[in-house]
Amino acid sequence: MTVKKSKPVPTVETPPAAATDPLLADLNAAQQQAVVHGDGPLLIVAGAGTGKTMVISRRIAWLVQTARAKPEEILALTFTDKAAGEMVERVDALLPLGYTDLWISTFHAFCQRILHEHALEIGLPDDFRLLNETDAYLLVRRNLDKFDLDYYRPLGNPAKFIHALLGHFSRAKDEAVSPEEYLEFVKNAALDQDVATEAEERSRLAEIANAYHVYQKLLLDNGCLDFGDLLLYTLRLFKTRRRLLDKYRAQFKQIIVDEFQDTNWAQYELLKLLVPQDGNIVVVGDDDQAIYKFRGASVANILQFKDDFPDAAEILLTQNYRSRQNILDRAHDFIKQNDPNRLEVRLGAAASKRLLANRPGVAPIEHLHFATAEDEVAGVADRITEIKNGLQDGQWSDFCILARSNSSADAFSYELQRRGIPYQFLALKGLYAKPVVLDCLAYFKLLDNYHESPALYRVLSSPPYRIDGEDLVNLTHQARRKAESLYETLKKQELLRLKPETSRTIDRLLGQLATHSQLAGRKNVSEMLVRFLYDSGYAAELKRDDTAEARERSSHLNQFLSRLRRFEAGHDEPTLRHFMEEFAIERDSGDEGSLSFDVETGPDMVRLMTVHAAKGLEFPYVFVVNLVDKRFPSIERGGGIELPDALAKEKIPEGDMHLEEERRLFYVAMTRAKDGLFFTSAEDYGGKTKKKPSRFIAELGFEPTSAAAPSVETLPDLPAAKGPSAAPKLAPPNYFSFTQLAAYAKCPLQYKYAHVLKLPLFGKGHFSFGKTIHSTLQKFMEEYADRRGMGQQQLFGAAAAADQDAVPVSREELEKMYEAAWIDDWYPTAQIKDSYRKKGRAILDSFYRRVTELHPEPLFLEKDFKVRLGSYWVRGKIDRIDKLPGGEVEIIDYKTGQSKGETKVKAEDKRQLMLYQIAAGRLLGLKPGRLTYEYLEDGTKVSFLAKDDELVAFEEGVSAEIDRIRGGDYTPTPGRHCDFCDFADICEFRG
Ligand code: ATP
Ligand code: MG
After folding, report:
1. Residues near 613 by beta carbon (within 8 Å), at least 6 away in sequence
2. If pLDDT is split at 50, 70 and 90, which confidence band does 650 have?
3. C-alpha–C-alpha distance, residues 922 and 916, integer Å
4. Does any ligand 1 atom lie closer than 6 A to the CB of residue 319?
């Protein structure tokens, strides 16, 4: 352990509380020191698997438990959603009661939260639409004429240029360079070249700078922000609105950052702005794991931190709890080839990366070389099976296959599937190639044009129709013979002798096509998708099994649905035809559809992912595959537009940046392994020439292998590949929302459809309406509370309310909020929509009147919480908590509808409020005096307060219910509620 003290840090090897405090007991001395670090900045630089992430999770819990900080006073930032999710989980496990406001998130999510709250302050819309790469591409593509391009004018397909420009803008945003700054730079930059080239260079740069400016304006004109904007504008907000910055600086007493090596300049700027008064910022990182070159060079960030915080304490962790010693040694020897661009070299012993394994034993480290790609794929599957069979409690989840790119991983997923080995492909791209999405797209194509024969063929073979193979052959044969479209052949199906079953299916399909193509001209495209799913029987098909695979299909469908909704948000006439037009452009640009994976799917599966996605994770056995020249290390992608060095704010190192980055990536791959590490390669990947092995194989010290090296044949006898094994069951969730529990209480089967299988759903007009009213009232009450000078955070006593009589927000302002919040979706007809709009106004009138009369004093609005009930987590959101005279509070939940004239809260409605009563008491330290449903339509309120024994019974009831859910008990309870069930049409138990 090495601790550099520049501020007094506890000097005892083991802090006194350690022996008994379960948060500290199992940590080594350096780790403990990091957890209990006092005030001031702290830098933890350490190699992989030394417990960095663990230490900061513990620190968060420790700060809360020892009352050094409240949960909402800690800002913890990390890189990926997955990492943020894991940190939340770890912290959950450490905080016994639960909490209300935890700011653990990615940088982007943090900025998004801030901007949604305060965007108006810098002239941005607070209801901005966040564009992903695809959306941004399409926006530029549609508006290409607005860009004054000469040097970069696309001659053919503009896709490459647009991507290059977008990449460039994003890079500029990483460096927090605004268009104005860019333009300024171009005007003044000293370009060190002769006169002729200088003029050309300046005009090229001016063109880019102008394009950047146009792009930014385009985004704003459309009410959109892209990912880079989130940071850019948050920085601008904090730099120009000191009051807000001060507010957040006062709130966040502790800042904690994981994977610090990968923060870009803009993110680092943000951190520096937010550093609290006491300088409490803890950053952890490993320069050897910096894998986003364009987010700043590897060592620069950490050195910069040391410059900016010269007083920072430093802790080095050298005990590794993940891997066997020989894996650590091999990885360290490998990464040393990046010297001297490494901290270890720059800082000497103070940053020693030689790690000591805590777990004894030697791991197999092998290079397996094969003749062909097929052999490699088979060889990996064989080796996995072999190792698993040899282990006592071998699990599929002990294995991970890592590839440099998504496309390399494809072949492995086919092979695992073929062998019936459960696996999960954690790809970030490829949604549009998923079978279920292809089925839907085929149907869409048909609605657009009946005569698209390949699409019709796919639809006929898709799950809801799946017509007989022989009949299908006859049909296509006939179509070809008559040179007509398959559709025309179907129309004349009686001429062919088809099986009666086939005939019926064709009639059904033709009928649906007729109805749906009628609708498609009027309805939103997302609604058409859901209609197709339910009318065709696809949804009924999906609900049939509850395997992880089925769930994955639903997840793909839901992602496709989100894609459609994003399209709708940006279009005035979001019909199927317009979507298909845009979609064609998107596909032309090479977009494969971004894919997010569902981490909740089955636990016991082989994981297959890219190295980038594996960051921070660990697995007993790791296979790094396709280790050949040009794949890993990858070739440096040309065609990009470089950002001028002078605009990059960090120190750019010398050396072969690309190769070094690939080495770091490889180092990340190696250090995921605990007990075994396998490198595989092949000679023949189907190209004209044989592939050379990756240079990394030699750098690892393996002998060069010849073609005759072990192929599958020479491997030991292996058990024959099994047929498809029983599909793995879904893992039950660990967290439950109140909505989910309510759904379960109504009907466990309904719960399963909605929350386990996550079948896509129709929206409903009255849901859109309910959401509109809720968000309008929230906005209004926030404004109301703000202007009364009693911000949400303020508690009793401090709230010396200003003017008691006037409502500080006018009815007109409320109306504007209503208009802005209006959600236009899912109303069956324009008339019905209109009547809802009127009803909304009446609701607001009466709400406004009540506020004028009663002068409520809201303490909290939309308070998120997560509370532990028994051994489970339940989360929810409280609409409003008001202060009552005498120090108690009233908890209010809005109901959009009418009361049924009841004067008391009905037993089945009590549960929700009791949950809130528990959360407010335990997590916020409040004393509820009244729990209230406020029926907005008629303005009535009904209240009650649960007694302690009721709360105990409630908590036990919830625990028992969750036990049943986790036990997989989905017995349907049909009844009158079936009439309102979303799944009534596909449910055979319907009452
Ligand atoms: P990476 O650099 O890959 O992100 P890391 O430094 O963040 O790694 P962690 O993921 O926090 O490391 O920890 C690696 C593994 O070691 C985890 O399984 C963690 O639970 C375990 N671990 C860390 N510290 C200890 C300890 N003191 N005792 C037992 N296990 C530990
Ligand atoms: Mg980590």
Report:
1. 80, 82, 426, 428
2. low
3. 10
4. no
Q: How far is the CA of 701 from the centre of ligand 1 (A)?
A: 28
Q: What is the pLDDT of residue 547?
A: 72
Nearest CA to 124 out of 134, 132, 114 is that of: 114
Catalytic residue among 135, 175, 258, 375: 258
With a 6 Å cutoff on the Cβ, whether 51 touches ligand 1 is yes
Q: For 638, which DSSP code?
A: -
Ligand 2 centroid vs 51 CA: distance in angstroms? 7
- Please list, residue by residue across 212-230, b when 16 or more beta carbons sit within 10 angstroms of its beta carbon and e when fewer do: bbbbbebbeebebbbbbbb
Annotated active-site residue 53? The verdict is: yes
Bigger pLDDT: 154 or 373? 373
Q: Are 343 and 261 in contact (CB under 8 A)?
A: no
For ligand 1, whether the C-beta of 566 sits within 6 Å is no
Sign of the torsion formed by the C-alpha atoms of 185, 186, 191 and 195? negative
For a mutational test of ligand 1's pocket, the pick from 31, 260, 322, i.e. the residue with the most ligand atoms closer than 8 A to its C-beta, is: 322
27 Cβ closer than 6 Å to some ligand 1 atom: yes
**Least trusted range by pLDDT, from 40-44, 269-273, 819-823, 978-982:** 978-982
Alpha carbon of 48 to ligand 2 centroid (Å) = 7
258 is catalytic: yes
Tokens standing for residue 384: 């996995």
Taking the centre of ligand 2 as the mean of its atom positions, its distance from the CA of residue 879, in whole angstroms, is 36
* 137-165 average pLDDT score: 82
CA of 617 to the centre of ligand 1 (A): 10
Annotated active-site residue 672? The verdict is yes
pLDDT in tens, 304-333: 899 999 999 999 999 999 999 999 999 999
Instruction: Give the count of alpha carbons within 13 A of 749, CB side only.
Output: 20
Q: Is 619 in the pocket of ligand 1 (CB under 6 A)?
A: no
| Contacts (Cβ under 8 Å, ≥6 apart) of 761 | 530, 754, 982
647 has a pLDDT exceeding 80: no
The answer, yes or no, to whether any atom of ligand 1 lies below 6 A from the CB of 295, is no
Query: What is the percent of the chain where pLDDT is above 90?
Result: 50
SS3 377: helix
Question: Is 289 designated active site?
Answer: yes
Packing angle of the helix pair 265-274, 159-174 (nearest 10 deg) = 30
Quick check: 704 pLDDT over 80? no
Q: Which atom of ligand 1 is nearest to the CA of 55?
A: 11
- Cβ atoms 493, 522 nearer than 8 A: no
Nearest residue to 177 via CA among 235, 123, 130, 131? 235
**Residue 327 is encoded by which pair of tokens?**
């894996």
**Three-class secondary structure of residue 604 per DSSP:** coil
Assign 202 a pLDDT band (cuts: 50, 70, 90): confident
pLDDT band for 110, please (50, 70, 90 cuts): very high
At 795 the pLDDT is 37
Question: Is 610 touching ligand 1 by the criterion CB < 6 Å?
Answer: no
Task: Note every long-range contact of 880-884, with CB atoms under 8 Å and residues 24 or more positions apart, other chains counting.
Answer: 880/781, 881/920, 881/924, 881/926, 882/856, 882/857, 882/858, 883/796, 883/799, 883/857, 883/858, 883/859, 884/929, 884/930
pTM of this structure: 0.82
Site of tokens 């089945």: 908
Q: Look at residue 257 and give its three-state secondary structure.
A: strand
**Dist CA 446 CA 876 (whole Å):** 43
Q: Is the pLDDT of residue 295 over 60?
A: no
240 is catalytic: no
Measured between alpha carbons, how far is residue 500 from residues 494, 497, 535, 785 in Å? 10, 9, 21, 69
- Among residues 253, 672, 674, 758, which one is catalytic? 672
Nearest ligand to the CA of 286 is 1
Given this model, what pLDDT does residue 705 score? 61
What average pLDDT does the segment 109-129 reach?
90
Residue 259 C-alpha to ligand 2 middle, in angstroms? 7
